């Protein structure tokens, strides 16, 4: 079956610290992988995606690489800002089917 | 181009009442998806609809929940005889087509509280 496991939070970092949020997946076939971000009181916004092995998705200083051999899609950012405080969801979309499979979310708080 | 619009943003119901959640997809999108986010959990798929058709309702509870997407007007998620366990955030997403790897655009959600 399909599932996503991501690092539990909450995570608290100081501004300019390095961020890693781990995400691993189980899937049949070759899914596409995504990171979504949810700011307080808002819906999910697509942060980045990768559709095949070894692809790197990047946006707003965030990066994640699709690693088929370790079934992982870890999110990284070199220097976080207070405005990055949000909940981050890892998700997969299988190559057959109609739905996303989401991880439980990781809450990030960045303090000045 | 307006995004996915959901209303109301917050809905309070007493046990036994009905809840109706509305979702207007992005302009030009004919595919709608509903997800539920329980406290401290990720989003779970409920149902996928096209205009006038339910394509996949594998995530819908068998009782009390129904969804529609009429030819005209918004998609409606209806919960009859709500219970406290229905308290959650309900998100709608839309896409221009339902193919794999397509991107779904999410609304801001409706937060249902059952007293």
Summarize the structure.
With 112 residues, chain A is mainly beta.
Describe this structure in words.
With 112 residues, chain A is mainly β. Chain A is 0% helix and 50% strand. Chain A has no helices and twelve strands. In chain A, the strands form three sheets. In chain A, strands 2, 5, 6, 10, 11 and 12 form a six-stranded mixed sheet that branches. In chain A, strands 3-9-8-7 form a four-stranded antiparallel sheet, with no helix packed on it. In chain A, strand 5 and strand 6 (44-50) form a beta hairpin. The N and C termini of chain A lie far apart (41 Å). In chain B, 0% of the residues lie in helices and 49% in strands. Chain B is built from no helices and eleven strands. Chain B starts with a strand and ends with a strand. The mean pLDDT of chain B is 91. The A-B interface holds A 4, 32, 36, 41-46, 49, 51, 89, 93-105 and B 4, 6, 33, 35, 40-45, 48, 55-56, 59, 91, 98, 100-101, 103-104, 106-109.
Give the % helix of chain A.
Answer: under 10%
Q: Approximately how much beta-strand content do the residues of chain A carry?
A: over 45%
> Which structural category do the helix and sheet elements of chain A fall into?
mainly beta
Global geometry of chain A:
globular
Ends apart, CA distance between termini of chain B: 36 Å
Low-confidence stretches of chain A: none
Please name the two chains that share the biggest interface, counting residues whose Cβ lies under 8 Å from a Cβ on the partner chain.
A-B, 25 and 24 residues
Beta percentage of chain B is over 45%
What is the makeup of the main sheet of chain B?
7 strands, mixed
Order of helices and strands of chain A: EEEEEEEEEEEE
Tally the beta strands of chain A: 12
Principal-axis shape of chain B equals globular
Secondary-structure element series of chain B: EEEEEEEEEEE
Q: Mean of the pLDDT scores of chain B?
A: 91
Architecture blueprint of SSEs:
The complex is a heterodimer of chains A (112) and B (115).
Chain A lengths: L2 E4 L4 E4 L4 E3 L1 E4 L5 E7 L5 E7 L5 E4 L2 E4 L9 E3 L8 E8 L7 E2 L3 E6 L1
Parallel strand pairs in A: 2-12
Antiparallel strand pairs in A: 1-4, 3-9, 5-6, 5-10, 7-8, 8-9, 10-11, 10-12
Chain B lengths: L4 E3 L2 E4 L5 E6 L6 E7 L5 E8 L2 E4 L8 E4 L6 E5 L8 E8 L9 E2 L3 E5 L1
């Amino acid at each position: 079956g399909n599932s996503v496991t991501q690092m539990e939070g909450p995570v608290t970092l100081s501004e300019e610290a390095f961020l890693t949020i781990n995400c691993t997946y189980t899937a049949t076939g070759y899914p596409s992988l995504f990171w979504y971000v949810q700011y307080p009181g808002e819906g999910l916004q697509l942060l980045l995606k990768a559709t095949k092995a070894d692809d790197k998705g990047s946006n707003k200083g965030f990066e994640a690489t699709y690693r088929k051999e370790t079934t992982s899609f870890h999110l990284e950012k070199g220097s976080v800002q207070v405005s990055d405080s949000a909940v981050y969801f890892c998700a997969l979309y299988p190559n057959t089917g109609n739905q996303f499979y989401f991880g439980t979310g990781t809450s990030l708080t960045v303090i000045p | 181009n307006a995004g996915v619009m959901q209303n109301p943003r917050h809905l309070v119901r007493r046990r036994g009442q009905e809840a109706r959640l509305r979702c207007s997809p992005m302009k030009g999108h004919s595919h709608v998806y509903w997800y539920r986010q329980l406290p401290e959990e990720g989003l779970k798929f409920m149902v996928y609809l096209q205009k006038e058709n339910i394509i996949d309702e594998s995530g819908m509870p068998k009782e009390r929940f129904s969804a529609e997407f009429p030819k005209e007007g918004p998609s409606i998620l209806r919960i009859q005889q709500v219970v406290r366990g229905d308290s959650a955030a309900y998100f709608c997403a839309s896409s221009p087509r339902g193919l794999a790897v397509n991107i779904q655009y999410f609304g801001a959600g409706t937060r249902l509280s059952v007293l």
